[in-house]
Amino acid sequence: MKRYNVAVVGVGAVGEEMLRVLKQRNFPIHTLKVFARSARTILVDGQEYNVEELTNDSFKGINIALFAGTEGEKGAAVTYAPHAIKAGAVVIDNGADFRMNKDVPLVVPEANPQDAKKNRGIIANPNCSTIQMVVALAPIKKRAGLKRVIVSTYQAVSGSGRGGVIQAEKEFKAWATDSDETVPLYMDQKIAFNLFPHIGSFGDEDYTTEEWKLVKESRKILHDPRMKISATVVRVPVRTGHSEAVYIETQKPITPAAVRKLLEKAPGITVLDDPKNKIYPMPKDCEGCDDVFVGRIRRDPFVKNGLWLWVVADNLRKGAATNAVQIAELLIK
Description:
The chain is an alpha/beta fold. It has eight helices and 13 strands.
């Protein structure tokens, strides 16, 4: 088996998850390099990794470079991806900087694997909430078409980075111990016993950047630039695992039972849909898993071809690290 020289850039929550996923999926690695702004040693699941300082010359001999990415600001790929590509590597970037570049494929392997072949040295990894939604929608679109999508997301604090997790833990601890300690805000609002409809910055039509990502990225991935998509994103006090209430109107009639069978056969999807026995996807059960979980599949009794889905996935794995590694797996086939 051919083996590849792989680099992981960034050792935050997503970078560490990339290291974990590479190992768990037995990616054929010859040499693994880990880079960050400063050199240090880290432990992931008891394994020690030597982190080297990232420079323009870091990518000599590297075949695939996984950039962990930074949402909401310019990531390392803006500065270093050109150097990696020049050195002969293919860059898979989890950040937002290149996603809507018309020359950069935006790939979810279960939805548009063929687009990965069109890369010019860089492939963009979509936003976490987009990934899990299009995994569920792609088979339905292929079978029945999609006229309209309305989605409300319930996004875990880990989606805002380690700072969000720290904030949530400290706020709950302060409440449990009746402490008057002031907890610094890494997110836009307090999160303990709270939720707020604000992820990213507010922009056009008073939608947030996170909401516009769901619109624009889904259209690009599903090759439907006119698809009607509307989104509301909400931060909730869950550690890991994004949940989505997805409402769709299909172009052709399709029953909930047919959707259920379709998704059960689709790659990367686990259907948990027996509400009478309290079986449906929940974040606590999906953490650490690579699949997208779908349940509560039901028709809208008042709208022709209207259907509801409840979609849950681990935002650090399928929503980031696993999807990036799956793109790398596409490249080496």
